[in-house]
């Protein structure tokens, strides 16, 4: 069996995160140093990159994207000079992340190909992430796909939890296909540290080094933080089982948009992630039309791209494949309680209740709880079941 076919089977059937240490990639755009890559970007980009800046002292809640400022006058090479090493007097971290392939100069993408993992039909549908030390993504899970993460330069800390972990899910801020939690793993509140320590029973962790690849299974929670200047690439493998969840996301989108229609810009900026601000449907009828198409696609099981099956081999066969000498993959194991406690206590030292201002909220806490309650996954699943019950009933009457 070809190596990439074996990897595909391993990736699609894994139930725990996998690490592929020092995977032999031959992606031409990354053959030089990160400085070479950044220099090429500055020379060839049509527009300068727009970096996000986040105050290190803003620590009382997760470092949501809505709290970050933009820096459009910061070039790639200047970023390396100013943020390449986080000095003691540094006040912010900086990042240019979640950038789709079409936003990048072609030479900065040359040779990137996920065929080596068994997925030739990726269609350049991947993202790039560049950030300084402490640049982070608040803890969340992706509603779609299996995530393949390739660490190109530097090191990133990945803290992961299984789907059933009792984290406090929220859809505020709303981002399509991401479900965040309220736990602040960047800077846990020392007064709430016991709650975080209890979560450690199911915590998985790795420091992903340059040349390593991480496989994040479907719906696994993850908090990601750069330990040094970091450059990585990821691809979400689209799954057939995700077609069912597309309806869930349309329902959530309708609920959230019904709350922001006609509201102030301040309200929209609080409820929506920045990348969603320009993606508000002009009329409810447009959203219903999208929902209707999703229902039709689900019933006919049609899609405009290749969707992959999961769980088509037994766990015994998967284990045998994992143990084969051809693959360098290993499953992550549950983090030791002592290591997890050290990590949480270390991050808790960042919490600054006196100097970090509490983010003003344009909505009441009751309203925020109502939105999160209406958008909770089990509530949305119940709405969907009721919709299809009525649909079947109407089709047979």
From TrEMBL:
Residues 93-252 form the JmjC domain. It is found in: Cytoplasm. One of its GO terms (cellular component) is cytoplasm. Keywords: Cytoplasm. Its main location: cytoplasm. Pfam families: Cupin_8. It comes from the Eukaryota. The keyword Protein transport does not apply. May play a role in cellular stress response. This is Lysine-specific demethylase 8. It comes from Drosophila rhopaloa (Fruit fly).
